[in-house]
């Protein structure tokens, strides 16, 4: 009843006696995956029950059991929605005062684990956000945190509290039993108790719910977040690395621009590279060397991509093997893809890049497995394993004999029709077959008088009757017996092939890993060659110097030659903090983001969109851009902004890169200005991070004269009457105006509003408290908010202005001074 409503299919029922009926509904078995996905997306877990024996041989009820439980985290095993990204199931466990995180993609066999300290769980939540699992088993202490609940709501992510989390010993036993090892030291888990609990507990949960051996989980990849540039959730979102802010699409993101991979294997790996840039110089240089070699050798690059384009998704094929859902076409596709290792190896000519040399040496065409599968399976296997016709002639003598027996019996039956026509003289006589009666002889009603006595009537139709003979039944037994035995034999041989393939899972996964890396490197080289990227000079220094840098995404959206390039120079001395001013829409945010993206690309191993670039490596990138609230936590826009600023100030170091866009705009003018000023001072003096700060607070430009490492830059514009022309060029010095009214005009704000705004702006700029007159002074704690209307005349000011000083006697002057003092005190009381 529940499924019928969710799936929008007809609800039927069946009689079960005593007038009772049970509700039923059904879907096509070959399309079950898409229906399961709808049920899971509706928030349900689905138990899949199958027959475990052949109904033809069963006595009484056919034996059935639940063969797997489908949940959001395991849906990928039965239904693939996006084969270019992972669908993880994660687990968080606590042990020895630390937290462990593990994640498994059951469709690809990817198994990850890492560990965090309990001093603040934000790094754990940031990593969980990066993995974006569809489902998570979570320790109660973490699950109770509001920040975790908010993250789960944003992803979205199905969560289940882990009430019976296994201990370290039990988890270790599960892992060692599955991987058939006596220690976990080879995986790096021997000193990570929390990660062991998470990985072992998750594996045990999957074994219980999936009811298969999960042979494609051949190992667990332990990693440490310190090996990569740290990107928190806010930074990944604001830089639009893999999802567009507006709609979550891939188009218009860094991944969308750089993803020129030709396999799902490479696409998944590239996403991981961009979300986890390297923090080790040697590893960065190795990738850059490989990309450089492929940029310079277009013939080799094109050859690699042509060969890889014929490669199937080895990881997912292996997943189907492990789940016993693979068919003959899957095994043949797997063999064909593995065999491509030979062509890839031949196409990778020796060169200076050590990484390419290493990858070439790891390529293995696995000739024994390939020969086995190709020798056993026909060139075009049927979709269903139960249809027969899987095994190639010559592979099994018994299969060949049964096929010959079946063919000869069928030929004999075909000959019966000819002989019976001749013997009976019935020209319309024909031999047919159906599953109810088997083989039969059909005679039309006008010819029934000529039917021989040996014919045994089996069925009467409107225009004909069907008969059988003893000889026909004998041949039928030969045909059906041979075909039944042939089907069983072919199925058994196919399962043996599946087992042999599963036994080679580790070697197949190694080939998948190598092919994915080659695909990523070739794709990055293709983008670099087509768009004129340069190889960045990456080192351990603190200088970030880019000449004619471009935003990689906007450049491609605008088209070649349309984007205006800009330079940038950042270091920890004279150019530590750049204050970028200028009007809205002029390109301040674009400039800041392009610098962050180029640094990220360089440390991911990619060339960068610039004429030349030197990148001093960073340990973290922080990007606070834009304004939004968080209704899940009841936080206002300004509160979210301050929380993000807080994470930056507490998490950044002298090796970090920080970009800030319009901080302090969610409160009153002088409150916001004071906060922005103090944040800039703190980043410069205490954190000493390389920082780009885009702002409309032109008052902040006064910092250039006060702090040694602050420099002012602005986006150049040209005024044309009441209009402005954005030049998109970053120049030295602060902006001399904000041009907000001109931008409002471009947006279509009605002219009366613009006219009134110009009037008020003119009045404010003439007033004593205008921002223009206070521009070079730091904001004070006692600053008052600007009034939009002209204030009432100050009585002391009026009295002084009208006073005839030269005509006063000394006594009158003292008296007038006393009156003015009383007026001033009265004004203070008001």
In short:
By secondary structure, the chain is an alpha/beta fold. Helix 12 runs antiparallel to helix 14, helix 12 packs across helix 19 and helix 17 (397-424) packs antiparallel against helix 18 (470-503).
List keywords for this structure.
7-stranded mixed sheet; 6-stranded mixed sheet
Model description:
With 830 residues, this protein is an alpha/beta fold. Helices cover 44% and strands 17% of the residues. It is built from 27 helices and 25 strands. Strands 11-21-22-23-19-24-25 form a 7-stranded mixed sheet, sandwiched between helices. Strands 9-8-5-6-7-10 form a 6-stranded mixed sheet. Strands 12-13-15-14 form a 4-stranded antiparallel sheet. A hairpin with a 3-residue loop joins strand 12 (430-434) and strand 13. The longest helix is centred in the middle third of the chain and has 34 residues, at 470-503. The radius of gyration is 38 Å and the shape is elongated. The chain starts with a helix and ends with a helix. Mean pLDDT is 88; it is low at 769-790.
Q: Uncertain segments of ≥5 residues (pLDDT<50)?
A: 769-790
Number of discrete helical segments: 27
Q: How far apart are the first and last residues' alpha carbons, in Å?
A: 73 Å
Q: Strand fraction band?
A: 15-25%
Output the structural class.
Answer: alpha/beta
Adjacency order of strands in the biggest sheet: 11-21-22-23-19-24-25
């Amino acid at each position: 009843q529940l499924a019928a409503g969710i799936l929008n299919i007809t609800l039927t029922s069946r009689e079960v006696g005593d007038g009772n009926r049970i509700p039923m509904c059904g879907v096509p078995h070959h399309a079950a995956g898409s229906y399961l996905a709808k049920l899971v997306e509706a928030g349900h877990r689905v138990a899949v029950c199958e027959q475990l024996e052949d109904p033809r041989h069963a006595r009484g009820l056919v034996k059935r059991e639940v063969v797997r439980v489908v949940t959001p985290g395991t849906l990928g095993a039965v239904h693939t929605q996006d084969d270019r990204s992972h669908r993880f199931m994660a687990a968080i466990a606590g042990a020895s005062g630390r937290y462990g995180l593990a994640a498994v993609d059951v469709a690809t066999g990817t198994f990850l684990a890492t560990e965090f300290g309990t001093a603040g769980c934000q790094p754990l939540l940031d990593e969980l956000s990066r993995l974006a699992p569809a489902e998570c088993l979570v320790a109660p202490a973490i699950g109770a945190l509001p920040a975790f609940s908010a993250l789960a709501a944003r992803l979205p992510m199905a969560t289940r509290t882990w009430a019976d989390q296994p201990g370290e010993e039990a988890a270790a036993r599960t892992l060692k039993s599955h991987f058939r090892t006596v220690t976990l030291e080879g995986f790096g888990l021997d000193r990570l108790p929390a990660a062991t609990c998470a990985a072992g507990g998750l594996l045990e949960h999957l074994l219980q719910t999936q009811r298969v051996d999960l042979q494609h989980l051949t190992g667990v990849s332990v990693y440490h977040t310190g090996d990569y540039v740290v990107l928190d959730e806010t930074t990944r979102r604001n830089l639009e690395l893999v999802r567009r802010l507006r709609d979550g699409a891939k188009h218009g993101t860094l991944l969308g621009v750089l993803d020129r991979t030709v396999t799902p294997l490479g696409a998944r790996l590239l996403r991981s590279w961009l979300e986890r840039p390297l923090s080790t110089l040697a590893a960065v240089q190795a990738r850059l060397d490989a990309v450089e070699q492929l940029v310079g050798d277009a013939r080799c690059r094109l050859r690699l991509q042509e060969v890889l384009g014929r490669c199937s998704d080895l990881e997912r094929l292996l997943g189907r093997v492990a789940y016993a859902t693979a068919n003959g076409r899957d095994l043949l596709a797997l063999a064909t893809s593995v065999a491509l290792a030979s062509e890839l190896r031949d196409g990778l000519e020796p060169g200076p890049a050590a990484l390419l040399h290493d990858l070439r040496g790891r390529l293995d065409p696995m000739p024994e497995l390939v020969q086995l599968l190709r020798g056993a399976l026909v060139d075009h296997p049927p979709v269903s394993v139960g249809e027969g016709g899987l095994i190639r002639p010559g592979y099994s003598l018994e299969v060949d004999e049964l096929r010959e027996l079946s063919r000869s019996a069928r030929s004999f039956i075909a000959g019966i029709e000819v002989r019976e026509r001749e013997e009976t003289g019935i020209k319309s006589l024909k031999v047919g077959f159906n599953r109810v009666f088997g083989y039969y002889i059909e005679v039309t009603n006008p010819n029934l008088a000529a039917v021989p006595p040996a014919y045994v009537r089996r069925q009467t139709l409107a225009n004909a009757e069907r008969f059988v003979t003893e000889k026909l039944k004998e041949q039928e037994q030969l045909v059906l017996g041979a075909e039944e035995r042939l089907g069983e034999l072919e199925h058994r041989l196919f399962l043996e092939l599946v087992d042999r393939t599963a036994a080679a899972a580790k070697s197949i996964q190694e080939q998948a890993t190598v092919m994915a890396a080659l695909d990523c490197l070739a794709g990055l080289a293709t983008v670099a060659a087509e768009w004129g990227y340069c190889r960045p000079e990456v080192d351990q220094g603190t200088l970030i110097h880019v000449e004619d840098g471009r935003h990689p995404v906007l450049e491609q959206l605008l088209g070649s030659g349309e984007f205006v390039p800009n330079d940038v120079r950042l270091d920890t001395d004279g150019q530590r903090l750049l204050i970028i001013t200028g009007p809205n829409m002029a390109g301040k945010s674009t400039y800041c983001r392009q610098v962050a993206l180029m640094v990220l690309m360089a440390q991911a191993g990619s060339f960068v969109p610039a004429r030349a670039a030197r990148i001093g490596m960073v340990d973290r990138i922080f990007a606070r851009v834009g304004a939004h609230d968080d209704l899940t936590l009841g936080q206002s826009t300004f509160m979210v902004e301050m929380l993000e600023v807080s994470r930056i100030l507490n998490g950044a170091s002298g090796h970090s890169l920080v970009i800030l866009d319009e901080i302090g705009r969610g409160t009153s003018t002088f409150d916001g200005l004071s906060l922005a000023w103090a944040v800039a001072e703190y980043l410069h003096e205490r954190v000493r991070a390389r920082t780009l700060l885009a702002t409309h607070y032109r008052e902040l430009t006064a910092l250039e004269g006060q702090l040694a490492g602050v420099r002012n830059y602005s986006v150049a514009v040209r005024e044309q009457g009441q209009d402005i022309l954005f030049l998109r060029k970053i120049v030295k010095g602060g902006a001399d105006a904000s041009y907000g009214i001109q931008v409002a005009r471009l947006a279509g704000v009605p002219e009366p509003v613009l006219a009134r705004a110009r009037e008020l702006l003119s009045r404010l700029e003439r007033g004593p408290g205008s921002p223009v007159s206070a521009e070079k002074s730091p904001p004070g704690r006692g600053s008052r908010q600007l009034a939009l209307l002209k204030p009432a005349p100050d009585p002391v000011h009026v009295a002084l202005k009208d006073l005839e000083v030269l005509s006063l006697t000394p006594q009158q002057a003292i008296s007038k001074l006393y009156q003015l003092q009383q007026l001033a005190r009265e004004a203070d009381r008001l």
